[in-house]
Amino acid sequence: MKSSDDGGADSMSIGALAARFGLATHALRHWETVGLLHPVRDAGGRRRYGADDLTRVATILMLKEAGLGLSTIKSLSATVDRATRHEILRPTAEELRSRVAAAQASLELIEGGLNCTHEDVTQCPTYRGLLAERAAQRSPSEEGMILAVAPAS
Fold first, then answer.
1. What backbone torsions phi and psi does residue 108 show, to the nearest 5 degrees?
2. Is the pTM of this model over 0.70?
3. Radius of gyration of the chain (CA)
């Protein structure tokens, strides 16, 4: 299925579309190769992009910024089923939640250092509290390792 109906006045060249989004033309060609874009061709065989292609490129860029890979974006574009969409997006949402939590913890540490009135930040009660929290936390894999090496009673 072609994205654009014709190569008329409302269409643009690959160079114009790439420039509009600050992309290299090879990125658009690659997206076409992997099945994300389907430009029409004019009489000379040149790619022509229309309004639907503009929307599709904007969507691809937003989804890439959200951390999705091209294969995931292609899977999303191929489905209209809500359950399938949720199945595709759930792992990325979980990863983003984890990254946001890690970034928040990092920000708290940095802000603690900025707001600390102690000359030596390692003597700051807030900093020491953050360290104690971190030392008390263990990942599931660490828990398994601890259990695996613990002597049997």
1. -60, -40
2. no
3. 25
Enter the tokens of residue 112.
Answer: 């603690």
Taking the CB of residue 56, how many other CB atoms lie within 10 A of it? 20
For 14-31, the three-class secondary structure string (H helix, E strand, C coil) is: HHHHHHHHCCCHHHHHHH
Sign of CA dihedral 50, 52, 55, 61: negative
Question: Is there a contact between 53 and 37 (Cβ–Cβ < 8 Å)?
Answer: yes
* Cβ-based neighbour number of residue 130 at 10 Å: 16
The CA–CA distances, whole Å, from 77 to 34, 81, 83, 85, 88 equal 12, 10, 14, 9, 11
pLDDT tens for residues 87-102?
Answer: 999 999 999 999 999 9
